[in-house]
């Protein structure tokens, strides 16, 4: 599974003209790993699935949906901020007709940027194939609303890409730019040495694994330097960096300040720190998910996801620079209003 947190790519808040008014003005597309998979792996023969209880225990119908969480994941919460319904998995047979105007989720648990990442799960949708599916989606949508409207929908959409914790290579930003992205919010790697799975293997007292932490600390400054280079090439503010390590470190260093009882123990699991093995019906399960940062060995609870998205929306430049998501959307909306 993934051991990172988010990487986001955002596109401008553009009006989509004659698209049906019953749908949000901005479509939403999701790419990445288990942190954002909302059910694609349910349609694959793979070990990387979250299709059985207690996953989904805190959804309205208490049903496992393929999300690696007790409830909603980050894309669901972003959809709430957009005033839209959650996007469907691309492999879902329900993704057809008007549902395609909302967008699509192409993410697959276990993948990384390299195609050999996740090979142990036998069958996942690697990022290169996710991008091919995105092209396929555009052809399908063109047959419904025409090529011009499809291009406008994609150009005005919001794109979320979550990769990086399963490997440390990032070579898809320019691919996103070539596909039309003009406001790209890129998250650095989080404190991957602090997830319960790593604590179970390497920690005696709940302290984060230093080697994995050092890898993230080496990677993140280089990522920010890369974003600066890209902004110099394409214009300032196209690429926005998110300090995910800072966001998560807040939870780790003082969990009680955020209403959590623990940032080391997983809610669902077994063994040391509840971080060994998968979350299943026979796992230890905490009574109050809202007091845990981690739902399982790698993935956050819904409440932690909500606090993470809150920093994306309104965090200071210590967390997200040069501006937060609320400012990005307001700036893009103002630009569009000036054009019309």
UniProtKB/TrEMBL annotation:
Q: Name one GO biological process term.
A: lipid catabolic process
InterPro entries named among the record's database cross-references: GDSL, GDSL_Est/Lipase, SGNH_hydro_sf, SGNH_plant_lipase-like
**Which Gene3D superfamilies does the UniProt entry name for this protein?**
SGNH hydrolase
Keyword list, A-Z: Hydrolase, Lipid degradation, Lipid metabolism, Signal
Example GO molecular function: hydrolase activity, acting on ester bonds
Q: Where is the signal peptide?
A: 1-17
Entry keyword Transit peptide:
no
Q: Which family does it belong to?
A: Belongs to the 'GDSL' lipolytic enzyme family.
* Protein name (Swiss-Prot/TrEMBL): GDSL esterase/lipase
């Amino acid at each position: 599974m993934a051991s990172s947190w988010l990487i986001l790519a955002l596109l401008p808040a553009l009006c989509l003209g004659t698209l049906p008014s019953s749908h949000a003005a901005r479509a939403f597309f999701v790419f990445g790993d288990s942190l954002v998979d909302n059910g694609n792996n349910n349609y694959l023969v793979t070990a990387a699935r979250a299709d059985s209880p207690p996953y989904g225990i805190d959804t309205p119908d208490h049903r496992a949906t393929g999300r690696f969480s007790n409830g909603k994941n980050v894309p669901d919460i972003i959809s709430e901020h957009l005033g839209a319904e959650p996007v469907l998995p691309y492999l879902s047979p329900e993704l057809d007709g008007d549902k395609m105007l909302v967008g699509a989720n192409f993410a697959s648990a276990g993948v990384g940027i390299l195609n050999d990442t996740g090979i142990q799960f036998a069958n996942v949708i690697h990022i290169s194939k996710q991008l091919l599916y995105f092209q396929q989606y555009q052809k399908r949508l063109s047959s419904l609303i025409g090529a011009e409207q499809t291009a406008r929908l994609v150009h005005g959409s919001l794109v979320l890409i979550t990769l990086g914790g399963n490997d440390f290579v990032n070579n898809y930003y320019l691919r996103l730019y070539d596909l039309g992205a003009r406001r790209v919010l890129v998250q650095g790697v989080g404190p991957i040495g602090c997830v319960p799975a790593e604590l179970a293997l390497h920690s005696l007292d709940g302290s984060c694994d230093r080697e994995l932490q050092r890898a993230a600390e080496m990677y993140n400054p280089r990522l920010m330097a890369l974003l600066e280079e890209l902004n110099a090439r394409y214009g300032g503010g196209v690429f926005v960096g998110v300090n995910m390590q800072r966001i998560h470190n807040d939870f780790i260093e003082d969990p009680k300040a955020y209403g959590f009882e623990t940032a080391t123990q997983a809610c669902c699991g077994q063994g040391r720190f509840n971080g060994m093995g998968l979350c299943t019906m026979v796992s230890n399960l905490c009574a109050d998910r809202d007091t845990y940062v981690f739902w399982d060995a790698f993935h956050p609870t819904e409440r932690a996801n909500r606090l993470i998205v809150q920093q994306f929306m309104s965090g200071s430049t210590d967390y997200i620079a040069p501006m937060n998501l609320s400012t990005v959307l307001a700036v893009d909306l103002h630009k569009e209003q000036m054009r019309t």
